[in-house]
Amino acid sequence: MSQTNDRLITDVTQFLDSFQSAMAQVSDARRQRDALTASASVERGRITVVVNASGSIVQTRFSEDVDDLSYSQVARATVEAAQQAAAEVKRKSEELLAPLRAARAQLPQLPDLIEGAPRLRDEITEPPVAPLTPPGERQTASATAEFEDAVEYRPSRRSTFDR
C-alpha cells in the first residue's frame, strides 16, 4: 500500500510541476497574444482596417481618394477589410497558441491519476463561430425544421379542460 501511495505522490508532484510550467507559458503567451494586431486593405488601398487580438477594430484609415467610392461601397469594403484583418489575427493567434495546446495535450488527465475519474477535457466544447453576415441577411432555419416530429394541438369545441 505504501508503494501505491508513493507512486501517487510522485505522479501528483510531477503533475503539479508540469501544471506550474504550463501556467507560466500561458501567461507569456497571453501577453504576446494581447499585443497582436493585423490589418487589411481593400479597394486598392483606399480603406485599411486594423484589429486587435480579439478581432475588434482599433483603427480605420481612408485614403484621400476614398470619395471616389459610394457610401455603400465604403461600408461594404470596411466590413470586408475588418473581416480579412480578423481572420489574419486569428491565424496569428492560433500559430502563437499551437505550442501551448501541444504542451497541454501532454499533461496527464485526471483518469491518469485516479482510476475511474471522468475526462473533463472531453466535456468542454468549442463555441460555434459567429456568422459574418449582418443579421438581416442571414438565412434562418424555419421553426418547423426544429420540431418536425411535433404534433399540433387542436382542441375540439369542448375539451376535457372545459368540463
TrEMBL record:
Q: What is this protein called?
A: YbaB/EbfC family nucleoid-associated protein
Instruction: Name its species.
Output: Nocardia albiluteola
Q: Do you know which Pfam families this protein is assigned to?
A: YbaB_DNA_bd
Q: Where is the composition biased (Basic and acidic residues)?
A: 151-163
The residue range of the signal peptide is none
Q: Where is this region: Disordered?
A: 124-163
